[in-house]
Amino acid sequence: MVHQLPSWAGLAPALALAVTALVLLLIDSVDPDTTNTSLLGGVSVVGSLASLAFAVWFIFGGTGIPTSEGGVGTPVLFNGQLVVDQMALFFMIIVASVTALVTLASTDYVREHAYQAEFYALVLLAATGMSVLSAANSLATAFVALELVSLPSYALVAFLKKNRGSVEAGLKYFLIGAVSSAVFAYGISLVYAATGVLRFDGIATAIESGTVQTIVDGTVQAQSGSPAVPMSILGVGIMMVIGGVAFKIAAVPFHFWAPEAYEGAPAPISAFLSSASKAAGFVLAFRTFAVAFPIGALVSSGEALNWFVVFQVLAIATMFIGNFAAATQEKVKRMMAYSSVGHAGYILIGLAALSASGDGMAFSMSAGMAHLLVYGFMNTGAFLFIALAEYWGVGRRFEDYNGLGRQAPLACAAMTIFLFSLAGLPIGGGFFSKFYLFSATLDVGAWSLAAALVINSALSLFYYSRVVKAMWIEEPTGDRSIESYPTGLYTAIVSAAVVTVLLVPGFDYVSSLAFRAVELL
């Protein structure tokens, strides 16, 4: 059934999150000392699920598909600054799903902490920024949305105010994030100076025509006099935009904030940042470089930056450094933080497995998108299991997990699914998403990327297996009693595990959705 909606309704997934955050702040203003975790967590989960329901309804209702193909068209807002297409909705589904799992799990994790309403409100405000970023069609809009993601994230990392590690991690994240935002903003200014526009389609038109453009009544037009685009300035601007995006996705060499932030933050926030925030960074990268900076026109100019070569280098370096660093860790949470860096390298294949003319973009980008969706569930579930272990007072090191499978078999079985799926074994959707990425590298003959993907997946199996071995095979090193099984955390972990397994038979459908979204883009 096709649903025709007004353009503003296309932002319903983001509006649902924003309204929920405002409701939480209203509840807190009425009763500033409330510690009714069930109420606050329940409102947050309902708001996240409402956002997910809107996004799923729209993506299957034909939103973002041209009317000539049986869809309802693409909602365009604010003179083309926001575009709610199939790609935007795909990423809104990822953000809403991760937010729902994190807010559900947090009902137990933050029960004994103050400022619970602020905690949930900050999570939902950051998720609102991620949803808006998914629909951004301009560098200016993208920058504002990115800051809406970043500012609440800094506070969330430092939420455990009496924990020195949490406060230190929040401060480091803030300082490095401020620098990256400045670099990104300067890159945007250089792109604007070179092309005369900030909207993605306008930038592409300027590059392809070789002349500076302007936007008049929503239409891209050549400026009077049509000065030539200075490719050298544009190249520096593109390089600085890459730096800003690479920080957000924790790609090498801009990854050093991630292990500190993920380890110091509350475990549910580590899950949120490493999954939803990473997805938001990648949708910005996909939109910017697929639409605004057409690789064929840049390469043919002979003067501009070949950004797909830069992403090839970033992908290989991020895979190797992230996974080798993870293999040397002695703390489970820090190992997962470096593992998250390694997975950023896998997803970068979506922008790296291209030819000089841009061939293979639809295949490689859809592979990256499909992996991000699967990764959202299996990585979030793994970090939530760590939150469960922290709730029980289990230590941070591998040996502290010894024998845990005998006391909590269901949760440990879910963790085993997450870890083996992250490694690429056919126990979850991670196997098919990695195979899809591998196929994308072979499609364009990117043998170095294919080899890096295989080698690093094998290496990741080594360090993931250390956790599985500790839980199921090793004998406990000391007395440990588990007296309670928190409902929220357990429900979130089991839900993530079920979806990870169901993505095995359902992966073809996910990959076809991603491929259609890229083709329409």
Question: Topology of this structure?
Answer:
Elements (H helix, E strand, L loop, with lengths): L11 H19 L6 H25 L14 E2 L4 E2 L2 H24 L6 H20 L3 H19 L6 H32 L4 H10 L3 E4 L2 E4 L8 H18 L8 H8 L2 H26 L2 H7 L5 H21 L4 H21 L8 H31 L12 H4 L1 H15 L6 H14 L3 H26 L14 H34 L1
Antiparallel strand pairs: 1-2, 3-4
Task: Please tell me about this protein's structure.
It is a multi-pass membrane protein. With 521 residues, the chain is mainly alpha-helical. It has a domain at 306-521. It has helices at residues 12-30, 37-61, 86-109, 116-135, 139-157, 164-195, 200-209, 231-248, 257-264, 267-292, 295-301, 307-327, 332-352, 361-391, 404-407, 409-423, 430-443, 447-472, 487-520; strands spanning 76-77, 82-83, 213-216, 219-222. Helix 1 packs antiparallel against helix 4, helix 9 (257-264) runs antiparallel to helix 10 and helix 10 (267-292) packs parallel to helix 13.
